[in-house]
């Protein structure tokens, strides 16, 4: 690097002289500063001394002036007259040293003075009118304060000061008036002697005590040494009444010490000479050093140039460069890319490659060093490292042995070249080749003339042509066998030159001549000038895909069991036929067909037999239809028939044929099965103009046919639609009724026919909807059962009735038990016993106080399950009764096995007891049978005395009905029980009661 030009050098003599002048100036400044500090300290000491004398003088004058206070007190005490003043004054004088005289001056004229001797001349002295003292006396009278006048020539002779105190007295009217003065005469020599001012001269100081005259502002010397101090004297002032005095002091020999100043100047001169000598020696040494520095700079410049050339060479190498000794320790590290190092370069120095690199990489490095040690160089060895931020990185190592002095440890220069990109390119080429060969799609590369130059394995697998037979052939002959309505085989490659890509479905030809569907994609490859050099063709055999699409299409539109069209396909056909009938003003019939009691087949014989039966039914349905008709399976045992161009009469005829055909037995395996149909018919356009409307109304007509006894058909009617809409409205409202507290319980008493006492009550559910009003249980209970809501509603009824019964029993009201009706859905619920037990335990009601009422249908639909459920409830202490007995299809063989406590005679038999002999016979038979089986009986709907008398004669145990009371809300029923408790029994309750 270039060296800076040398600084100009002063001649040694000139430089030494400059240093001398500078050192002398510094020494002079230091001497001046020290001398100034000494004088400041000396003036401070003199000022303190002057202050001491000033304080002594002030105390002496102040003591003397204080005598005025005593004189003023005497004057005021005597109201202007002081008798025996001379005696009092003589007694005071010894206490006030320095006072020459004290006196009284009424009106400003001296009348009394002590001591009188020597002061006779002052008697009659008019202080206010005296030319020398009149002005100061008048100032004292005007100010009303003590004043000190002087120094002045006293009347009695000599120099002194006078302290005057004006005195004011109050007259009889309270007005103040000037009486005169009390005064103290102080001889000045005696006061100054107390201040010891002459001693200052003995101590080597000139002094001067002076004041400024208040009358003319001129300075007045009170006392001074000879000679007096000059203008540089130190002054201290003492404050006196009506003015101040100042004491000025100055050393007799002047300020400062000449000897000390001379010694300091001599030391400063010696210091300047010494610094000049040292400067001369320093400049000589610097001149010698500069010569050496020039030589070093020249050699350094040469070394730096060599290093710069070497650094430029090393920096031109983009890969890491290491110096490593024979043992594998890093000696130096250089790289322009620190991210290629396994660790920061400064941490590698001195560490072994085995501690830094993975085991395999470290072994490879040591092998390279060993090879370089033997033959002087090594190259081509590769290692792999996982670097932070770069991931897997590959390096190629090159090493050369470095020249070292004899006996020194061998060292090697190792170049680690990053070959990751080359590795990735090789892997990419290998991967591309594998993808090409292992692709499931056929890949064909052809030249610009469409001659095959390369194929992959998939091509051979799909077409049967191996590479030897395919290469060199025309691509058109192998990939496109024929034209379809979507593709012109001759135009595919013609359009390729224009568009650069074509994709679509085509037909291919195999080696054996067979054709197959293929998905074909052709792309062109162009060079830098845009000319086509090759084409790449990809295709795959889509035979299986075609077959799968066909299967999916069939599954999407046909039932997988019966192979009949499903609802989606039927809806499409229905819309098309509706449009056709609308065009020609025709009619169309839709038949909803449902198998009766098909569930029994599945439950008893299994789903396999049920599926075979459904297929057989489907075949019979198809056999009865015309070619333009459609039979569809909706799911389960439901079918839908679409009959275009069909009148209502023709639809009824078809329905009759269906009923007759399906009623014929089916032989399935070893079983001969017989089933029936329920058919609902909806007509276009009378019942609807869309598939959904016709479907809904045919469904409603089918359910009406089932309710009418099954094995029949029915047409949709307007009143059916109204009932369907009402049922839907009730179902929707019923879903929120429980959470909105719209349900209530009414209780109808059950009365002993012998004692006419209340023995129980039946809980009856009532629903009051804010819009629908009171909804009959006969209307909403079936809806709740079909929708599954009956379970939650029934649990609420049971919970409410049990808690009400517990409350009334705690009140000791006459109630033996409460009865709650169970629907068939509730009775079949597997958790019914646990729910009943939980509710009883929660309320604390004994189980014998609860009676559950079952219908005959709930008990005999599945007798075995009913027996098991009754046994569980009976074991838990709950009593069971059979409601509406005689209206169903009771099996007496099961009845004797049921755990039934009571039979309830339906009101349909009780209502006409007075007039119908058959009803009387049936009721008598039921009562006799119950007695024979050990069961009690309760008659429902008792409304007349004749009915009551007959039932009592036949031995009926209990009755309920309007003869005793209509169903009552809980509060009214509680009042009813209280009346019976108090003996106020009413045998009849009017209908409004």
Can you describe what's shown?
The chain is of the alpha+beta class. Helix content is 45%, strand content 25%. It is built from 33 helices and 36 strands. The strands form 7 sheets. It has an 8-stranded mixed β-barrel with strand order 27-28-30-31-32-33-34-35, surrounded by 4 helices. A 5-stranded antiparallel sheet has the order 2-1-5-4-3, sandwiched between helices. The protein has a 5-stranded antiparallel sheet with strand order 11-10-14-13-12, sandwiched between helices. Helix 29 links the parallel strand 32 and strand 33. The longest helix has 58 residues, at 258-315. The protein is flat, with a radius of gyration of 70 Å. The two termini are 126 Å apart. The model is unreliable at 1-10 and 984-993 (pLDDT under 50).
Helix and strand topology:
Elements: H1 12-65, H2 67-77, H3 85-92, E1 99-106, E2 112-114, H4 134-143, E3 147-153, E4 159-170, E5 176-187, H5 188-195, H6 198-202, E6 205-212, E7 219-224, E8 234-240, E9 243-251, H7 258-315, E10 321-325, E11 330-334, H8 345-348, H9 353-356, H10 359-375, E12 377-387, E13 391-402, E14 411-418, H11 420-438, E15 442-447, E16 452-455, H12 457-463, H13 467-470, H14 475-479, H15 489-499, E17 501-509, E18 515-526, E19 532-541, H16 543-557, H17 567-584, E20 588-595, H18 598-605, H19 607-623, E21 630-635, E22 638-644, H20 648-663, E23 666-668, E24 671-673, E25 677-684, H21 691-707, E26 712-715, H22 718-737, E27 743-752, E28 758-769, E29 773-775, H23 777-787, H24 790-810, E30 817-821, H25 824-827, H26 832-843, E31 850-855, H27 856-860, H28 863-875, E32 879-885, H29 892-895, E33 902-905, H30 907-910, H31 917-932, E34 936-940, H32 945-954, E35 958-960, E36 968-969, H33 970-981
Parallel strand pairs: 25-26, 28-30, 30-31, 31-32, 32-33, 33-34, 34-35
Antiparallel strand pairs: 1-2, 1-5, 3-4, 4-5, 6-7, 6-9, 8-9, 10-11, 10-14, 12-13, 13-14, 15-16, 15-19, 17-18, 18-19, 20-22, 20-25, 21-22, 23-24, 27-28, 27-35, 27-36, 28-29
